[in-house]
Design brief:
- The complex is a heterotrimer of chains A (340), B (639) and C (201).
- Chain A contains nine helices and twelve strands.
- In chain A, strands 3-2-1-5-8 form a five-stranded mixed sheet.
- In chain A, a hairpin with a 7-residue loop joins β6 and β7.
- In chain A, α2 runs antiparallel to α3.
- Classes of the chains: A alpha+beta (340), B mainly alpha (639), C mainly alpha (201).
- Chains in contact: A-B, B-C.
- At the A-B interface, α1, α2, α3 and β9 of A face α4, α8, α10, α11 and α12 of B.
Chain lengths: 340, 639, 201
């Protein structure tokens, strides 16, 4: 009776896993690119092997307990040689099987690792991602410097083309992780590393920092948006164009507020004199979906809140609080809203 | 060595023994009252206070865990802010690893090993006392800092540069670094005690191949401590120096290296978890053999498995660094080693299963904990094999999948055996039997609560939830798993309370246990419960692995002086008697030395002169420690 | 019913070398300290890969004079230490005390030469760069061992001179010698790593 209860308790989690996996809420197991797919394949092998091993061990244990003889025989230091021989064979077989199984898992994992390293031969798109407390500084590399694009917390990639992500850090260790596409790679100051990922279908893939990096590690998200190649090229071209300083209306007033306030000390808006590099590049701020590294959606209301009271949104963030009166603030929002 | 037959009458022998016991009680006595408590050289008293203190830290660490589960139970909860949360998870990990897990395992060794090998004390009784005080000082320093809101907040492994001078201002990380100093000195002291005691003080006839498996486990663990702790000693000192006197070990701008920290830390950190796990396997072996009413199947294989695990444990550390971008060939080696270590561990599991199969199992609460361990450790070991593979590790590293894995192997693989061991040896320690029903209930509640708490974390990790986040977005998809885990934490807490209730009940109302309530086979069951301060009236001799199950009576050792603290030293390999040695008794100097060391270390938080101050104070106390005391009963005077 | 006994009363009460527990305790200490120094040595080699020049630009090669003299002093000190080891087994109180006094002088000489190395030979400070940090640490750790062992020799000399003297004090002198052998032995690779290796790496 007790054995049945224990058995059910052990099987239930496995059923849960199966259900949850089917629901697609686990991006690591619902891969959208070849790298993540290879990893998931290997894991499913390891998973089923583990289920079998655990089931066998538990079944043996429960069976042994179920058939125990409640004989009040005194303990003895001598044993029946026939029983001993069977036990020797059993343990040896179990160890042998374990070794073979582990060898299979080892070889298959090395093969998977090698396959992951071999991707990215064909002309990858190169993106350098520098982790900073607590946002992602993204730069699209190009041999022609004026063609490079700098953005933040959002990476667009073309479907079907390998992307070489170079991971760097300018302060502490971060870790770049987009589970739907690949495993993670650390951003380590003083060391450069990289990984190659690829999306095989269009979609938006959530990423996050995966190495504890301080007080707002929990709010250091990024989005990888995979688009058909033409759509991506159009986006990239748009990102390459500088902003134009507005000449009239509330946006003009907002631009003046931006330049006369502390904003330009940290932020760059190409096409204007603002050239600060401490904070994210804002040239195309309005084209991004989120603010503060995925902490809040990019809407005027949230943007206002972020500007006036960043500590309320993300306590510990490096963005200082700013006080603008209502008119200046709405003008600023108009200016920033035009940076698409 | 003459083996004499003493004269026939029991009355004469009994009277002689009573006289000897009275003399031994006087010779080995601890001074009464507070002074005795501070100066004790009795391994059992020191070990028991170590165990109680360690469980006190376990409770504190558990409260921290409960706070974390409370905060994470709902998305975007504002219960605990990021700064406090970061202190909490750092304190939880540091407390559990440095102030609970390693000390409690070593303390169980300090208590049990002398009894199991048939001697009266550990090899260096005063150093043992010192080890406890320095451990306590470290724990008090850490928790005082937390109460003052300057607790360390960069995680229990404090990666640089986050923990370096540029990004972790103030004294928080310095306190963490010095906690390491305190606890690693205490751990090394206990390790040297266990090695020397085990190798040189075993009773005659207890050759290495007749040592109980728990003694083997403790011996191997002690060797691991000796070779692993230096790495973190070096690393924490380098970090403290980077922060205090501007060295550049980890500063990339001056040629230092952030990865150097990781290599040094994990070269210690991986053996650390085996230091916690291997004693637990020793507990399981003793419990399983007693309740299966037969010796563990495959003793030589078990010993080799322990030794192999001990060695292999040092070759795995890079598997904590697979995401840092190391060369592929190196990664493959560490994958292979990390998977290979499953073989000796698996061998142990198969031997326990074979023991149960070939024995006549009697189920009691301690055995339930051992059985629960088997289930949970196998599961945790399997997820460990998954994590050993670099490709999958790149997905699961630093996520809740890893949190699930290591709690399965640490709680399932170490805490469950420890709780079983407490129930198993509690009668020996206090002379009373625990409540069997409470024991079984506490096991089941703990088992269910543990699984409900930690199993969902596998799914959370695969779902993308990283470690060490104080909150998560409502639309992240982590709400259900976290809610389940938090409910599990409530059940787990109930289980812990039930277990504690059992201990409390036992101490007040438990039935008298007698010498050997479970019918065990090793020497600790051959003396009274609790044992007299001198352990055995006459040291035993053995000729097999299960002395209490052997059908014939064995000679006992006579000829040791009973008017002074005299023990028998034997040969390291085959335990033939070699010489008699006088041990030191109670002394205040270990406490004073610990205080001197504490003063130095705490001052060093603020100024490097702390090292000098500490050194000068230690000069004084060590002189006091080693200076011969006139008139005090000591070894023979030289001509 | 009679009980068999194993009578150990004829066994000695003093033992030297691996027969003695204190020897094993010191062996444990040697294992620990040796491992720490080895780890710092590995850190030295690890950090080397972050530099183009070693020592870094602007720092001279470490001067050999004081360090080689230190090596000579330590190697020479093995002679009186071996003598103490031999004499202590024979419980020669006065000679052992004199020998320990000689050892204190050797220890102070080594420490003086070490101070010279810090002041002049290394050519950089601990906070100059990672190279400076690791070489100061290597030399500093070893110096700490020389200092504590010299103190122990002085303490034991005082005990032997002032008394009361126990037989175990001679075992202590013997294991002090054991630890001193380790300190000298570990200076050889430390010296080679800090002073000779940069000329080849």
């Amino acid at each position: 009776m007790r054995a049945c209860v224990v058995a059910i308790r052990r099987l239930a989690p496995i059923v849960v896993v199966a259900c949850a996996a089917c629901s697609g809420r686990m991006p690591a197991l619902d891969p959208s690119g070849p790298q993540a797919a290879r990893i998931a394949t290997w894991w499913w092998i390891a998973f089923w092997v583990s289920v079998v091993v655990l089931a066998l061990v538990l079944a043996f244990l429960l069976h042994t307990l179920a058939r125990r003889r409640i004989a009040a025989a005194p303990a003895s230091a001598t044993h029946d040689p026939r029983v001993e021989r069977r036990l020797v064979i059993g343990v040896s077989a179990a160890v042998g099987l374990s070794a073979v199984t582990l060898l299979v898992l080892l070889v298959s994992s090395i093969a998977t690792g090698r396959a992951l390293h071999d991707f990215g031969g064909a002309d990858p798109l190169t993106v350098q991602v520098t982790g900073r407390q607590w946002w992602w500084d993204v730069e699209y590399w190009d041999p022609v410097p004026s063609q490079r694009v700098r953005t933040a917390n959002e990476i667009h990639i073309p479907v079907g083309r390998p992307v070489l992500v170079k991971t760097r850090s300018s302060d502490v260790i971060h870790s770049f992780w987009v589970p739907g596409l690949h495993g993670k790679k650390d951003n380590i100051p003083g060391h450069g590393s990289s990984l190659v990922l690829q999306a095989d279908r269009a979609g938006t893939f959530a990423g996050r920092c995966a190495e504890f990096c301080g007080v707002q590690h929990a709010h250091m998200q990024l989005l990888v948006i995979a688009e058909p190649p033409e759509v991506f090229e159009a986006w990239l071209q748009g990102q390459r164009t500088s902003a134009k300083a507005p000449t009239e209306g509330p946006a003009r007033r907002g631009f003046e507020v931006f330049m006369s306030g502390p904003c330009a000390l940290c932020h760059t808006v190409l096409g204007t004199p603002a050239g600060g590099r401490t904070g994210p590049d804002l040239t195309h701020l309005a084209s991004r979906r989120t603010l503060a590294a995925g902490t809040v959606p990019n809407t005027p209301g949230h943007l206002a809140g972020w500007i006036i009271d960043p500590q309320g949104v993300k306590p510990g963030a490096q963005m200082p609080a700013n006080s603008f009166d209502a008119d200046d603030l709405s003008a600023l929002l108009a200016f920033l809203g035009g940076l698409s | 060595m003459p083996v004499r037959r003493v004269g026939a009458p029991t009355t004469g022998e009994a009277a002689r023994e009573a006289l000897d016991r009275a003399a031994l009680a006087r010779a080995w006595a601890t001074p009464p009252g507070w002074l005795g408590w501070l100066t004790s050289a009795n391994h059992k008293s020191v070990a028991l206070r170590y165990i109680v203190t360690a469980f006190g830290f376990f409770a504190l660490g558990g409260v921290l865990a409960a706070l974390m589960r409370l905060q994470l139970a709902h998305p975007e909860s504002r219960l605990i802010g990021p700064d406090l949360y970061n202190q909490i998870f750092t304190m939880h990990g540091s407390t559990m690893m440095f102030l609970f897990a390693v000390p409690v395992m070593e303390a169980m060794g300090i208590y049990l090993v002398p009894l199991m090998i048939g001697t009266r004390n550990v090899a260096f009784p005063r150093m043992n006392n010192f080890g406890y005080w320095i451990y306590l000082a470290g724990g008090l320093m850490l928790w005082t800092s937390f109460v003052l809101n300057i607790g360390p907040d960069t995680g229990w492994f404090a990666y640089v540069p986050l923990s370096g001078p540029a990004y972790a201002p103030g004294k928080r990380v310095d306190i963490w670094a010095q906690l390491i100093t305190f606890t690693e000195v205490a751990a090394l002291v206990a390790a040297v005690e266990i090695v020397v005691t085990t190798l040189k003080m075993r009773c005659p006839g207890m050759s290495l191949n007749r040592m109980p498996l728990l003694v083997w486990a403790m011996l191997i663990t002690a060797f691991m401590v000796i070779f692993a702790m230096p790495a973190i000693m070096a690393a924490s000192t380098m970090l403290a120096m980077d922060r205090l006197v501007d060295t550049h070990f980890f500063n990339p701008a001056e040629g230092g290296d952030a990865l150097l920290w990781q290599h040094l830390f994990w070269f210690f950190g991986h053996p650390e978890v085996y230091i916690i796990f291997i004693p637990a396997t020793g507990f399981v072996s003793m419990i399983v053999s007693t309740f299966a009413r037969r010796q563990i199947f495959g003793y030589p294989a078990m010993v080799l498995a322990l030794i192999a695990t001990g060695f292999l444990g040092f070759s795995l550390w890079v598997h904590h660094m697979f995401a840092t971008g190391l060369p592929m060939l190196g990664e493959s080696f560490f994958t292979a080693a990390s998977m290979m270590i499953a073989i000796p561990s698996g061998l142990q599991v198969f031997c326990w299963l074979a023991t149960l199969r070939g024995g006549r199992v009697v189920v009691r609460a301690p055995l339930l904990f051992a059985l629960g361990f088997i289930a949970l450790f196998v599961l945790g070991g399997l997820t460990g094999v998954m994590l050993a593979a670099v490709p999958f590790d790149l997905q699961a590293h630093d996520t809740y999948f890893v949190v699930a894995h290591f709690h399965y192997v640490l709680i399932g693989g170490a805490l469950f055996p420890l709780l079983g061991a407490i129930l198993f040896w509690l009668p020996k320690m206090c002379g009373r039997l625990p409540n069997e029903r409470l024991g079984r209930w506490s096991f089941w509640v703990l088992f269910v609560g543990f699984n409900v708490t930690f199993f969902p974390m596998h799914l959370l990790g695969l779902g993308g939830m990283p470690r060490r986040v104080y909150t998560y977005a409502t639309d992240a998809g982590f709400a259900t798993g976290n809610a389940a885990a938090s409910v599990g934490a409530v059940i787990l807490t109930a289980g812990v309370l039930l277990f504690a209730a059992n201990i409390a009940w036992t101490l007040r109302r438990g039935a008298p246990a007698g010498d050997n309530p479970w019918g065990g086979e090793t020497l600790e069951w051959a003396t009274s419960s609790p044992p007299p301060i001198y352990n055995f009236a006459y040291l035993p001799t053995v000729d097999g692995q299960a002395p209490l199950w052997s059908p014939h009576e064995r000679p006992v050792v006579t000829g040791l002086r009973t008017d002074v603290r005299e023990i028998l030293i034997t040969d390291a390999i085959d335990a033939t008697p070699d010489h008699r040695q006088r041990l030191d008794g109670a002394s205040i100097w270990p406490l004073l030395t610990a205080m001197a060391g504490t003063a130095g270390i705490v001052t060093a938080l603020f100024t490097p002169w702390g090292v000098t101050i500490g050194a000068l104070l230690l000069l004084v106390t060590l002189t006091g420690w080693f200076w011969p005391r006139a008139g005090h009963d000591h070894a023979e005077q030289a001509p | 019913m009679s009980r068999q006994v194993l009578d150990v009363s004829a066994l000695p009460t003093i033992a030297y070398g691996p027969r003695a527990t204190i020897w094993w305790g010191v062996l444990g200490l040697i294992a620990i300290e040796g491992t720490v120094l080895a780890i710092v040595g590995v850190a030295y080699l690890y950090l080397r890969q972050n530099f183009v020049a070693w020592p870094p630009e602007g720092t001279p090669l470490p001067a050999l004079g004081a360090a080689t003299a230190d090596l000579a002093v330590l190697l020479a000190s093995l002679v009186p230490m071996a003598a103490i080891d031999w004499l202590s087994r024979r419980e020669r109180r006065r000679l052992v005390a004199i020998g320990l006094g000689v050892m204190v002088l050797f220890g102070l000489a080594s420490l003086g030469l070490r101070a010279l190395q810090f002041a002049a030979a290394l050519g950089c400070r601990w906070d100059s760069h990672a190279y400076g940090s690791v070489v100061w640490t290597l030399l500093g750790m070893h110096a700490a061992h020389v200092l504590t062992s010299t103190f122990e020799n002085a303490l034991l000399m005082a005990v032997l001179l002032i008394g009361p003297v126990e037989r175990k004090d001679f075992v202590d002198a013997h294991v002090n010698a054991f630890y001193w052998y380790f300190i000298v032995a570990i200076w050889v690779p430390t010296y080679a790593l800090v002073y000779l290796a940069p000329r080849w790496l």
